[in-house]
Structure formats: C-alpha cells, structure tokens
Design goal:
Elements lengths: L3 H16 L4 H16 L1 E10 L2 E9 H4 L14 E3 L5 H8 L3 E3 L16 H6 L6 E7 L5 E11 L5 E2 L6 H35 L5 H21 L4 H16 L10 H4 L7 H7 L2 H7 L7 H12 L13 E2 L4 E2 L20 H16 L10 H10 L7 H9 L1 H10 L6
Antiparallel strand pairs: 1-2, 1-6, 2-3, 4-5, 5-6, 6-7, 8-9
Helix pairs in contact: 1-2, 1-6, 2-6, 7-8, 7-13, 7-15, 7-16, 8-12, 11-12, 12-13, 13-14
Amino acid sequence: MLDERHKLNEVLNIGLEVTQIKDIDILLEHILTKARHFTGADAGSIYIKEGDKLRFRYTQNDTQQKKLPPGKKLIYSTFSIPLNNQSISGYVASTGEMLNISDVYYISGGVPYSFNSSYDKITGYRTQSVLTFPLKTYNDEIVGVLQLINSKDKEDHIVPFSREDEPFIKHFANNAAIAIERAMITRDIILRMIKMAQLRDPKETGPHVNRVASYSVEIYESWASRQNVDAREVEKNKDILRMAAMLHDVGKVAITDMILKKPTRLDDQEYEVMKQHTFLGARLFSERRSDFDEAALIVTLNHHERWDGNGYPGHIDFLTGKPLLDYCHPSGKTIGKRGEEIPPFGRIVAIADVYDALSSVRCYKESWDETRVLETLHQERGRQFDPKLIDIFLSIMEVIRNIASQYPDEKE
C-alpha cells in the first residue's frame, strides 16, 4: 500500500494529467481509468449532470473486458436517471455526499436510496463494494458523479474501498470536476461553430460531427495499437483528433448557399467551388498555435483526398488555393495526394465521414442500409481509402454501431 505522501503525490500528478485533456469524451475515459487505478477498482462509471437528470456517459469493467477477444471493446448503452435520492448516484448528486458501501446487496435500512441489480442479472456480474462520489467544483457546483465498483486486493479478492483513501479521492474529484467543466465549455464552443456551419449546410449537425469524431478516434486507436505507438502519444492524439474531426467541414461556412443548399446533385462547376471548403477551412487554423490547430488544419485540408490520388484539393498552397509548382499537371490541374502522402488523420476522417454520409439521409438520397454501405467501403479499399484502415474499420463495426446509437439524428 502507498503511504499518504505517495498517495498525495499520485493524486496531484493525476490531477495535472486530466487538466491537459481538452475533449470531454476522452477526458471522461481518462478520469475513470485513473480513479480505478488509484483505488484498485475492477469497474466504474461516470454520469454527467444534465438539468434535472444524470446522463450515463462512460463505463469500464475489467472482468467483462477479459471475456472479450483481444482488441474488442465493451458495448454499452447511454441512458439518463432522475436526479433524486432513490438511486445511489442520484443521491450523491442531490446531496453532494460521498457514499462508500461495502456490499450494495446489504444496504442498511433507513436510507432513501437502493441498488439497481438489473445489470448484474443480465450479465452475471456481481457488484459488491461501491464508492460513489460527486464531481464537485471548488464553488460546490456538481457536474457529475463517478462510481467505482469492486475494489480488489493483491490476491484479486473483492474488498471494501479504503476509508483512508476518501480524502485523496475527494481532492481528485475536485480537479476532475474542474477539468470536466472546462472540457464541456470547449465542446460547447466547437458545437457553436458547427451550428454556424449548419445554418449554411443542414448536413453539418451536432450528431453527424460527433459520430464522425467518435468513429475517427476508434479507427485511430486500433491503427495505433498495430503500429505500436506509445500509449501516451495515443492518448494525446485521441484528444486532439476528436476535436479536429468535429470541424472537418467547417470551411463550408465560406461556400455560397446556392451550392450548399441545392436540393439536387451539383454540376461540375458547382462541385469545383464546393471543393474549396477544404483549404478555406484549413485557413482558420493557419497560425497553428497548438497541436489542436495542427490537427484541425490537417483534417480539414485532407479528408477528401483519395488513396489512389484522385481526391482533392491535392498538393496546394492552402493559403492561396494555388497548386504547388512541383505538383501541377501539364493540363493545369492540381495533382492529388496519393497513398501515405495523405496524413493519417486525413485518411482516417475520410473513412468516418463517408461511412456516416452513406448511412444518413441527405436531401438528394435516402440512407443506405448497412450491407450496402460496407460493400461500398470494401469496394473502395485501395482506391478511395487506405486498405489497412478499411480493414481496421470493418473489424470494429460493433463499436461503430454502438457510437451511432449514442448520437442519433435530431428529429425534425
């Protein structure tokens, strides 16, 4: 066991780590992973406060994960619960109190909350010790609840969560809450930019960009594991890629409504204008003051390039939109980027964006069924798309479907 000094140092280091993460989804994953590691928890979940409800946002379970084939992820549904005293998480969010329960199947009488055993009945998992604490900022605003499940000792036996760790957990929770609050503000700013684009292009909705961003992160994570990318580099890149992918089509704000809102397919001249959204979007991030700016520039500029070199905008100076001298065809046409000339983030978002576009309703088409979409992607393997990345995408379809269910299109 760590002594108090080491525990405090570890909590401080964890707190510093979480403040570096900007994207809310990546942050929630990181917070739960670190909290579980610190307490020896087998499983855990995070709820975010949304009005008078708690929204279930993220979960981990080592016991259930070990039952899956290598490389597969747990599939779970998001849901909301009332913010009241009837559930353990609701009680913690309502009162701001931490609950440390040795066995949730034997909760003492006289308390308003109870344990919902439905998950255990469905999965065969046995929840026992549970530590639930509010994610509360320094001004006592509760942004969510973190619930840790089944603390384990060195012999892998389930034990109660240590009472001595509670002060450290409280300090960690405060730092986590502040990081969540900041990340939610960042997400809101990005979504406002998306809403600006949506005013011009009805296809650029919050659900669409969240799906594309989430698909992109999953593709990247699987690709990076095969490339033996350092774990810290993976976590950093997941954070910036998710935000950058949400802004892949932000350059469309500079395209005329006559083209963006045309209810039928574009003619050749209109299509050439539409292609400009790639480098017009890239210009928004041209000062490149951060890794995020760099990633957003790469994504906006390259997500319509093709593996076979027939994409756009090709080898250009994105500040002028003119072809680079060494990459101009004798006909005057810009030569497209080919193969690994296209940065990985561009190749990844290309797959995510096309998959979502084909799977969704557009003004000029109905949504395609999954079989047709996947057949099309496979046919474009090595032509439009990086063949290795297509193989990775097709191997994680359970996760992709789960993401789609979490971000359904808004009903009109």
